[in-house]
Specification:
alpha+beta; single chain
């Protein structure tokens, strides 16, 4: 008779102000990636990200100064979002993936700006300008070298999570005048074009 599966582990997500969120993470060796402790950590990070819910989680957010992040943009997160909004954000489902020691090796010159949030700055959001396309080289959960070329929302997610591994938060890159609570986004800015938001805030 098989034993019942263990319940998912939910890790504590640290909030801005914790020193580890402002420190560059240490690179992992292939041997460390293969270690059962790291493999278990990846599973716990996946479960924590999904439970939040979020589309990415970096190790510093759970108190570990290492270069490890997980990302996933599930199809269910896109339901209820207007098709024209998804199109403007170039947002499509992204399968679960693990990034170890990631480096952005190419940035596009063209940038896009949207409201962005973070599990470590809970309850708030702001306009953040990022490259529309990036290419990232990294090791996967088997310590195999990989390269991914991403555009739109996927590129934004990758830039956000890799920033975490360098000690950077979106609030370092945000349009400060746009900083707002999630509640007020729903009340005032939900689904408005960015140009309309900037105009209403007196931004040029």
């Amino acid at each position: 008779m098989s034993e019942a599966a263990s319940p998912p582990v939910r890790l504590k997500i640290l909030q801005t102000g914790e020193p580890v969120l402002r420190q560059a993470g240490r690179a992992l060796t292939p041997g460390e990636i293969h270690h059962p402790a790291i493999q278990e950590l990846i599973a716990h990070m996946r479960d924590t990200m999904r439970d939040a819910p979020g589309v990415g989680l970096a190790a510093p957010q759970i108190g570990l100064g290492i270069q490890l992040a997980v990302v996933e943009d599930r199809a269910e997160y896109l339901t209820g979002i207007a098709p024209e909004v998804l199109a403007s954000r170039e947002r499509k489902p992204v399968p679960f993936m693990v990034l170890v020691n990631p480096t952005i090796v190419e940035y596009s010159d063209d940038t896009v700006e949207f409201f962005e949030g973070c599990l470590s700055v809970a309850g708030f959001s702001a306009l953040v300008k990022r490259s529309r396309r990036v290419a990232v080289e990294y090791l996967d959960e088997r310590a195999q070298p990989q390269r991914v070329e991403a555009s739109g929302w996927f590129a934004r997610i990758l830039q956000h999570e890799i920033d975490h591994l360098r000690g950077t938060l979106y609030i370092d890159r945000m349009e400060t005048r746009s900083f707002t609570s999630i509640e007020n986004i729903g009340k005032h800015w939900k689904d408005l074009p960015v140009e309309a938001v900037r105009a209403a805030l007196g931004l040029r």
